[in-house]
Amino acid sequence: MTIARFWRETPRRYNLGGSKCTNCGTVYFPPRAVCPECPAHRQTIEKMVPFQLSGEGEVLSYTIVHEPAEGFEMQVPYVLALVKTQEGPVLTGQVVDVSPEEVGIGLKVHATFRKLREEGRAGVIHYGYKFAPTEAPDTAMVPRGPAAVARTDEAPVRDRAPA
Amino acid sequence: MREVAILGIGQTKFGELWDRSFREIGIEAGLHALVDAKLSSTDLDGLYLGNMASGSLIDQEHIAPLILDYAGLGRHHLPAVRVEGGGASGSLALHQGYLAVASGLYDYVVVGGAEKLTDVPDADATQITSATADHEWEGVFGATLPALWALVARRHMHDYGTTREQLAAVSVQDHRMGSKNPHAHFRNQLTIEQVIDAGPIAEPLGVLDCAPFSDGAAAVVLGPLDEARQHTDTPIRIAASQVACDTMALQHRKELTKLEATAIASQRAFAQAHRDPKDVRVAEIHDAYTIGALVSLEDLGFVEKGRAGPEFATGRFGGGGPLTINPSGGLKAQGRPFGAVGVVQAVEIVRQLRGEAKDRQVAGATLGLTHDVGGTGATSVVHLLERAN
Amino acid sequence: MQAGIVSYGAYVPRYRITPAEIGRVWGSDGEAMGQGLNVHRKSVPSPDEDTITISTEALRTALVRGAIDPQQIGAIYVGSESHPYAVKPTATVVAQAVGATPNLTAADFEFACKAGTAAIQTCLGLVGAGMIRYGVAIGTDTSQGAPGDALEYSASAGGAAFVMGRDHIICAVHHTLSYTTDTPDFWRREGQRYPSHGGRFTGEPAYFRHVTECAHRIMEVAGTEPKDYRYVVFHQPNGKFPQRVGKQLGFTDAQMKFGLVTPYIGNTYSGAALLGLANVLDHAGPHERILVVGYGSGAGSDAFDLETTEELAQYDRSFGRPVQYYLDHGVELSYAVYAKYRGKIHMGEA
After folding, report:
1. Which residues of chain A lie closer than 8 angstroms to B249, CB-CB?
2. Whose CB has fewer CB within 10 Å in chain B, the N or C terminal residue?
């Protein structure tokens, strides 16, 4: 059971705690002990300070995953993306609360708090960041009777190559 | 530093080798290479063994002395070292072997690569091989190795207009070449439509855009160039052996669609060999994913950035032109036993440079290149091999 | 009372399923069931959501809206009957996720659907006594009904977080009191997957008796009558019970309108009355009186005599979504996908 290895990262995975080099101002996620940008790396040791990311960003690239990573089986097909945050660092994470067809490069997203995986029915649950569209999706429902809106159980739309 | 030559080569069949154990395939390749090099095992000074994940795949670490032992050399007390760098483990082992002989401390070494991927279920193999990416910041968040390469593909399509068909063309060519390779995991031919319509793995990559999980082993014997003629009429000189690394996670790279490590390793290799990409007649490049082949073609310096899709689709790299790519069938058709890949690439190039490649022969090849990648490009290894006069 | 509500936030998952679809699978007239319960659709959590994630989203919204420094939070209590762990409080994970750790107290509450309102009372006490600066009370559930049971048509997922403090109160608490008895109308034994209930026993001796008694008592203490309140919120296991008890007590449809959310998102159990209150506050102006009467099986009722303040006019709700958004939007699932998401399909694990 990977208790300590996951627990140790909660300030990063729950709270998007990164670091910033006080020498050159570059922001990093995950946090770094040494600044890769500053030419004199060694001088940046102990000059890195904690820096909180806001969670706001946009999609740099994305894919729709059909063969899942361990723990993600119930979510297939899921959208995985590279998200460029406002502060600079790029993060890797799922995009949720969206149909795969709605995701595109440049989509504005923000970080949400979700379950990543669990160690079986009796084990610890691991939580962390995933991304959701910043703009409220228009999925209006009819007030009464069967709702005439997008059903998510249909076969996922095969991604089309760009025109 | 003295010049190093490849004196002998050997490989097993690649594929689902249900009846063969890791030990068996490891020693088979090595013994073939020794026989090919006309080298007695008592003349051997060491073994470098490339392997990515034996611990997770077969519950066995510390595999270099294991292979040495089962090759009958346990009580000869030779040095045996395992080398690991994700999918680039085999090439890294070749690099270490090269350094060992070049330094003069060792004269004759075997460089091997071996991996058994089918002793675990496919889902486990996906998880285990994805550990060559950044587990804590990519894997934990749902990324598999194909998913990460798919992110590269999507961006490459967005930035340069690369199409789904152009990706598929890589697998089609690999399979056409592989159909002539008796060692290949897959010998069937494919069409563009078949590749595009195959089940999705991580869109836009489908099953047929991704190299298979294969078992297999390969080996080469290295020795000093100035003693090579005692062992072979066709010594192949290692003209360059270069390694470059990059950030572990794709998210930290400078450019998503460029494998900086490949570009740097390639530049260093051509500088070391005093050669230029246009001098290369035959190359075995790391096509674990179709997009990887296209991006590598650009970053190795064979085509301009962004142009690999249309250029490859013309077929100019498919034989008969100034540069032929992956005559073995590449990782896609010949197979992908991770730790063996870098070594089998050298085996194929040596065959080509010796003129022994039969109906896969690239005419007049005197300079060949091998290119190996670990993870999503955190390690890249480039070798240039040249027919010695 | 010195302590009052300084901020709030709500969250309901994106997916929905209709009674018609549920009935289709179980051979019942689902549409008629829905009409009988006054439930048009209910919310369904994604496989990666649970009471912890929903509570965190709701509280994050509340903290941003109220510009509250999480390190100033002295207590977090989460009420639910679907805590992800039976032992290890939801509140500890939520506290970490909003940056409130380590200088606070935390615990989980359970009292069926009134665990959230009970948490509010506790926070009012701690804040009012000057022991802490901010206290957080959250009511969230992802409860399930047994497949094919009446409860399956209404049991849903959602939550709301309320922050109690002494400064910049947007909604003052004039009075709170409770009515508690040992009444076995609805329960779940340890280890059981789904709750059991007493059928029609859950009506008059349980919900109606406690809500009515508690409502009478608080209005007696407060010296008020139904007409003194602009809005009223009742616990709402379906869309019919609150309408009936409201009429019995003398409240109008207009007073009940915003507080009644179950018809559009289902019964969010510990979240229900709190989501109703959140919707009222989303629509309310300053100086409006609100009566909240929650109910939890087992059984008990917590009532609150509230009044919005002048500060509500300055309260910035632009962060997070209004409750109305969740009432009006959703993505409909088939029963098959709903069953998959809710873990009702036997996966054959060891």
Report:
1. 92
2. C
Q: Which of A13, A68, A159 sits opposite B204 (nearest CB)?
A: A159
Q: Are residues C305 and C330 in the same domain?
A: no
Q: Which two tokens stand for residue B246?
A: 């990059």
How sure is the predictor about C349, in pLDDT bands with cuts at 50, 70 and 90? low
Q: Measured between CB atoms, does A122 come within 8 Å of chain C?
A: no
**Could you tell me which chain B residue has the CA closest to the CA of A85?**
B251
pLDDT value at residue A161: 34
Query: Torsions phi, psi of C282, nearest 5?
Result: -60, -30
Instruction: Answer whether residue A142 shows pLDDT above 80.
Output: no
φ, ψ of residue B52 in degrees (nearest 5): -90, -45
Active site residue C81: yes
Which domains are assigned to chain A? 55-133 (2.40.50)
What's this model's pTM, rounded to 2 decimal places?
A: 0.93
Domain total of chain C: 2
DSSP C113: B
Tokens coding B133: 């990416």
Give C99's contacts in chain A (Cβ within 8 Å): 15
**Which residues are CB-contacts of C265 (< 8 A; sequence separation ≥ 6)?**
C12, C16, C41, C42, C43, C156, C158, C275, C326, C327, C330
Residue C186 confidence (pLDDT) above 70: yes
- Reported as half-sphere exposure (CB side, CA atoms, 13 A), residue B297 has a value of 26
CB-CB contact of B388 with B236 (8 Å): yes
Range of the domain at C277: 173-312
Query: pLDDT by residue (tens digit) across B330-340?
Result: 999 999 999 99
Q: Are residues C178 and C51 in the same domain?
A: no
- Do C86 and C143 reside in the same domain of the chain? yes
Q: Which among A65, A105, A128 has the least Cβ separation from residue B202?
A: A65
Residues of chain B with Cβ-Cβ distance to A63 below 8 Å are 147, 150-151, 153-154, 202-205
Instruction: Give the domain ranges of chain B.
Output: 4-121+214-236, 129-211+239-387
Q: Is C113 a catalytic residue?
A: yes
Q: Does C57 touch chain A (CB under 8 A)?
A: yes
Which CATH number is C22's domain given? 3.40.47.10
ipTM: 0.93
pLDDT of residue A1: 65
Q: Which among C21, C49, C57, C81 is annotated as catalytic?
A: C81
If asked whether residues C19 and C96 sit together in one domain, one would say yes
Angle (CA) C162-A17-B148 rounded to 5° is 110
Which helix (H) or strand (E) is B364 found in, with range? none
- Residue C58 near residue C90 (C-beta atoms within 8 A): no
Q: Is A124 near chain B, with CB under 8 Å?
A: no
Please state, as a whole number, how many other Cβ atoms lie within 10 Å of the Cβ of residue A155.
Answer: 6
Nearest to C18 among A114, A121, A147 (CB): A147
Chain B positions contacting chain A at CB under 8 Å are: 123, 126-127, 130, 136-144, 146-148, 150-155, 157-158, 161, 163-165, 199-205, 249-252, 256
The residues of chain B scoring below 70 in pLDDT are: none
* Range with the poorest average pLDDT among B305-314, B375-384, C190-199, C327-336: C190-199
CATH number belonging to domain B129-211+239-387? 3.40.47.10
